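Issue 218. Parser rejects a valid record. Input:
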Amino acid sequence: MKSANFWIYLLVMFIVTYFIRVLPFIVFHKKIENKFIRSFLAYIPYTVLGAMTFPAVLYATGSIITAIAGVIAAFVAAYRGKGLFTVAVCASFTAFIVDLFL
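Output the parser choked on:
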């Protein structure tokens, strides 16, 4: 990659990232009072994290069957109110055990 291209790409990335972060401060001068919008904005980080993580989970083990077994185990553990560490261990252990039998 040429050095000039790198600096152009870096500048474009900086501008896009900067404006995405600064735009809400420019547009919204006062506190948002609408309960629907506030609740919508509160769940955005979790939605984005889930959308970025879930596809990676399905391809992390190399087998879709073991991945689905791990996801099911994670859902069951989370539904029972277990913590994040316990859910992750249950999912990993289940995927490992299913992989041993395949």
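Fixed in the parser; the record now loads. Residues 58 and 67 are 5 Å apart (CA to CA).
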